[in-house]
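INFO  loader      accepted 1 record
INFO  loader      residues=519
INFO  predictor   begin
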Amino acid sequence: MRQIVLLLIVCFVLKVSAQKNDYNWLTGYQSYYHSIHDSTAYGFTYGNIEFDFNSTPVNIAFDSISMNFDFTETSQSDSDGNLLFYTNGIYIANKLNLPVSNSDSLNVGYLDTVWDPTIMTTGYRNEQGILAIPSAVNPRQYYVISTYVDIIPPPGGNVYCSKILVALIDMSLNGGLGEVIYKNQAVINDNLGEEVQCVRHGNGRDWWILVQRRNTNCFYRILLDTSGVNVLPDLSCLGDTVSYGQVSAACFTPDGTKYAYLGTSSGLDVYDFDRCTGILSSPRHLPLPILTDSNWIGVGLAASPNSRFLYASLTHQLYQFDLLADDIFSSIDTVGIYSGGHLPGTPQVQSLFHIQQLAPDGKIYMSGGNAVPYYQVINYPDEKGALCNFVQDGVHLPCLTDGIPNFPNYRLGSLTQGQCDSLTAFTQDVRDAKEQILKVFPNPANDIATVDYGFTDWNKGAVSLEIANELGQLVYTQTLPMYSGFQKLEMGQFAAGSYTIFIKRANAVVAANKLVVVH
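INFO  predictor   done
INFO  writer      dumping tokens
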């Protein structure tokens, strides 16, 4: 009986397991201009940009999908990396670029209907202000969590985030094109930071969401579990983070052990994070000056795939911190300085150092803050100092964008040895069973084959890829990157024949499969 129950659990978890939910990025600045302005004569254009991380290297393509993005943007793909939907904070579009039923008028209020109605056309403007998270109950349902921007009516006129809003989208409805079940459900009403960041619970199923209570050193903890979205009654208050109307950013490390918050007026705060309880601890604070620019204040945070290095961007500087150092802040290293990048033909529109996002290819991409046809890129963020290879304007984009999509680490698994007891004893059995799944496609292959190791339990340690020929001779080996889940192999390096592919950890076989090479 236990084996039957385990099999049923494995089948369910395989369906809901979020592995490649961030493999399609949608961005672009005010694409509606594409149809009414021929701006190519100036060296740039309007439209949309699609990043497809199912390709190696990432495929970056131009499109005019009609959604206008500003700073608020995220998307959601299924566990196989197929695009399901994307949003600009105003509405949600499906894979056919059509509005999802009942997804209109997200975050609608005084700000975008009275004070600045253009937001309804151009898109919402909260950096890191929206996330999509798979449901732990229904594999076809997804929660969209966003911060709501409000304004104190004149004569005050101050803009601030006043709510956390939740929408639930069911992609099984309307023939797979989706429908929003409910939207604009407020779970917090307060003066809030605009950053919404989340990390997988230590049980491997639920999610923790942190949102700062503005002008305090306190954070709301939201638990997304099988019962839905639950705001814990006790705030986590500690450290020196107090933000007063500043530009700010936040991030978790990919392993979920640390949370960082950066503000242009308060400085940088780094905390330890408990994935079982959602509690912050061990606050460390580095005061930073207010960094201003004639046009903009840019700020961003991201952590390296191995969770060792933290990158803080501040308008014209990019800093690296070693999170393993005894004194994190004494390890500060300036790895990037603004060198003059700007919108072609318009030098006053600078390509700044702004919001960062770790991508499935292991690189960290950074938006320019202003509408420019570039992303900055950190090519090797696991490396110390200059070896991280930061390149300003290193990614040339087919049209303008000022933002970057916001994602958590969907590939983070559960903690081991029962550290979180909110799930049954079957939890680790399920992960052990999933690890044995190794997909190779196409098979046979004559050009490029993809090895899918997306169910690896990274909490057990790193893994490597080994390939042996029919005689059992080792012909290929490499350490596999934990940030991805798939590896492309050129077939030209192998003779025609049958091979066995192994995923190994500490010389022990985790998973294996066959590959046939034809030429």
